[in-house]
Amino acid sequence: MLNVPEMFGSAVFNDEAMKKYLPKNTYKDLKQTIDDGKPLDINIANVVAHAMKEWAIENGATHYTHWFQPMTGITAEKHDSFISPTSGGRVIMEFSGKELIKGEPDASSFPSGGIRATFEARGYTAWDPTSYAFIKDGSLCIPTAFCSYTGEALDKKTPLLRSMECLNREALRILRVFGDNETTYVTTTVGPEQEYFLVDKKMYEKRKDLIYCGRTLFGARPPKGQELDDHYFGSIKPRVSAYMKDLDEELWKYGILAKTKHNEVAPAQHELAPIFDTGNIATDHNQLTMEVMKKVAEKHGLVCLLHEKPFAGVNGSGKHNNWSMSTNTGKNLFDPSKNPRENTRFLVFLAAVIRAVDEHQDLLRISVASAGNDHRLGANEAPPAIMSMYLGDDLTEVLRSILSGQEYLAGGRPVMHTSAEVLPNFTMDTSDRNRTSPFAFTGNKFEFRSVGSAENIACANFMINTMVADVLSDFADQLEKAKDVKAAAEELVKKTVIEHKRIIFNGNNYSEEWVEEAAKRGLLNLRSLPDALPLYTSAKNISLFTKHHVLTEVEIRSRRDVLLEKYSKIINIEALTALDMAKKDIVPAVSAYIRELAETVSVVKSVDPEIEPNAQTELLKKLNNLLNCFVKKISELDRAVVGAKDIKDEAENAMYFKEKVLASMQELRAVADEMESNMSAKAWPYPSYGTLLFSV
Ligand code: ADP
Ligand code: MG
For 606, left (φ over 0), alpha (ψ -120 to 50), or beta? Predict the structure, then answer.
């Protein structure tokens, strides 16, 4: 029988392991660093390193690696063994405090957006003691931050940690104003729900587009997609179920709180949700989860696709970033309590988020911008590119009452009557769900739904943390001076809601009317990454990040360039893949099929010249026309790709790739899909959408 409690965290140097392997004093010092952010002395680090090594070796590790999250989006690791030579050609296993605290990977192969000149290609990784070390494939993995020789952040974790510190600082000021002298630390809590697709590995291997790009670049619609809504929460197929079971067990070993699993809307699409953790750990765990998902799939003859839009015509995948703030005394600051109207502190925090989202719509959009996610945002399945907030009936009523000065009329929560004797009645969730909203209040947390499935959630979270901290800082400036805090806070909430209520929208975000209405309200509609990214370096944003020491101006510029460049590179790879498939597989396949048809026509005629093989002739003509058109589109795409070579500016280049290259790829695809629909399945060179989506 599976002993889950015993298995849970067995690959992690967690609190229990620390207690067991560390001397009491060292444990206490390390805990202070973890819990209160106190710096760690090198002598203590030496003791910790030794204990970690002992634990790791006992658990089968021979190597260690600094595990970090460069701006490529995936995690990076470079493995060193513990061995150290002694006399007589023998070795001992060693690991020092210095090796634990600091690593020096050659940074020149990681994107830096021009921060790091090649002559100082050295980069440093620095141990993040707030996230537990763990063993993966025989290596002790030490979560680290990654920065340049001159100290600029080259990774996703550093700004996240900085933003958590700054949010803590500003939130504490607000708590103090409200007389809370007990709380010493405020942290963000994050629970990312991860969507993914599973496809058969044998089918996957037949598709260059999936192999090189993670998404299909061609593929006619299958007769059945998701229109029957029969997949969502449907019973899980045995092969998928075996995968999910294995996945849970692997994740539990890493101390990841994998909790919920179910089928998603699209065929072959599934979701995994963990129990929330602090922002930093949730981020590390999500990165690890994505890696484990892929590995476990291989074992089952499957491939896990994390791309935001692997298939056109069915839903793409996202990551719902559930976000809240909580005190070290265990209070959730976004818990509205029984009577939110009277809960002034809650209202102040709520107002801060409303204002932050309104003032920094651009940053929220930038935080989820990627070549993959662009296919999803704005399609009628995922939140639109327009940022807005959903508050639900209860909080909307609270705000109405504040603005009008009238009584708050919520009363108790409505009871849901099931009208069957045997079923219990229950109270309804006060935040009735609006699944179309990008930033929804869901009971006691906010759910940011625009994040892409393949993205590192650090980015969305450091942006949210910083913008909320910025507003809290301003609120604290005002409230700290107030004589009557409650009255001043009420007034502040009212003023904030009046100024920023345009960001609140409880209706259907997928509707055409909302696009018009949002434009009237003056909300941004940044449809693609090339539209959004140039705003990263606006005066407003530079001032925001530098004021709170989350990013320097140099770091912001580098991030903007890295993202723009990555976008252009991805579309370039996609275009080259599409061209390769078109020229090497599709054109020959269609030509061969046309020839087959032509032979049929002549064979039929040779039997009896009176017979008219109309069906074949018509199909032949049709395919021949399509093929001519296809070949023309190939040369157009060829030219579009070449045209990018002359553009030097990153922003201009990304825009070019979107408007010329991506657009041209789509035209090429349309013709290919039409040909596929008119050909015999055997003659088409790739497994069809139907096979990919329904064969597992
Ligand atoms: P769904 O959105 O699918 O209906 P839930 O609302 O139950 O699911 O929860 C989704 C996610 O929100 C889970 O990962 C859960 O751990 C996370 N979550 C719950 N409470 C908090 C919180 N206070 N802070 C951050 N995340 C939370
Ligand atoms: Mg959700």
Answer: alpha
pLDDT in tens, 423-441: 655 555 555 567 899 999 9
Report phi then psi at 91, rounded to 5.
-130, 155
- Alpha helix (H) ranges present in 276-370? 279-299, 344-359, 361-367
d(CA 445, CA 482): 28
Mean of pLDDT values over 604-623 = 90
Distance 688 CA to ligand 2 centre (A): 31
Most ligand 1 atoms within 8 A of CB, residue of 276, 432, 447 to mutate: 276
Q: Which domains does the chain have, with CATH numbers?
A: 4-155 (3.10.20.70), 162-412+423-551 (3.30.590.10), 567-694 (1.20.120.1560)
Per the CB < 8 A criterion, the answer to whether 207 and 216 are in contact is yes
Q: How far is CA 606 from CA 23, 244, 594, 600, 610, in A?
A: 93, 59, 18, 10, 9
The pLDDT of residue 611: 85
What's the pLDDT at 160?
A: 97
Coil, helix or strand at residue 80: strand
- Whether 247 and 272 have beta carbons less than 8 Å apart is answered as yes
Within 6 A (CB) of ligand 1 lie 189-191, 193, 273-276, 320, 322-324, 332, 442, 444-445
Our mutation pick for probing the ligand 1 site, out of 232, 256, 322, counting the most ligand atoms within 8 A of Cβ, is 322
Count, in order, helices (H) and strands (E) of the chain: 25, 19
Q: Whose CA is nearest to atom 11 of ligand 1?
A: 191
Name the closest ligand to CA 335.
Answer: 1
The pLDDT of 341-346, averaged and rounded, is 94
CA of 455 to the centre of ligand 2 (A): 16
- DSSP secondary structure code for residue 120 in this structure: G
Return the residue matching tokens 């619609």.
221
Find out whether 129 and 280 touch, Cβ atoms under 8 Å.
no
The pLDDT tens digits of the residues spanning 654-670 come to 999 999 999 999 999 99
* Three-state SS at 383: coil
259 Cβ partners below 8 Å, 6+ apart?
A: 273, 274, 275
Q: Could you give the count of Cα atoms lying within 13 Å of 28 in the half-sphere of its Cβ?
A: 3
Expressed in angstroms and rounded, the spacing between residue 191 Cα and the centre of ligand 1 is 6
Residue 146 phi, psi dihedral angles, 5° rounding? -130, 120
CA dihedral 223, 224, 228, 234 (to 10 degrees): 160
CB 594 within 8 A of CB 623: yes
Going by C-alpha positions, the residue among 328, 370, 334 that lies closest to residue 72 is 370
Q: Which residues pair with 320 in a beta bridge?
A: 193
What is the CA angle 507-401-351, rounded to 5? 70
Cβ contact 445:323 at 8 Å = yes
Contact criterion met (CB below 8 Å) for 343 and 479: no
CB 558 within 8 A of CB 107: no
Dist. CA 182 → ligand 1 center (Å): 26
Q: Kindly report the average pLDDT of the chain as a whole number.
A: 92
For residues 117 and 108, give the distance between their C-alpha atoms in angstroms, rounded to a whole number: 8
193 CA to middle of ligand 2, Å? 6
Cβ atoms within 10 Å of 91's Cβ, excluding its own: 11
Single out the residue of 185, 135, 127, 187 nearest to residue 157, CA to CA.
127
DSSP assigned state of 106: B
Beta-bridge partners for 448: 321, 439
Whole-angstrom distance, CA of residue 622 vs CA of residue 675: 9
Question: 23 by DSSP, 3-state: which?
Answer: coil
Q: Give the SS3 label for residue 417.
A: coil
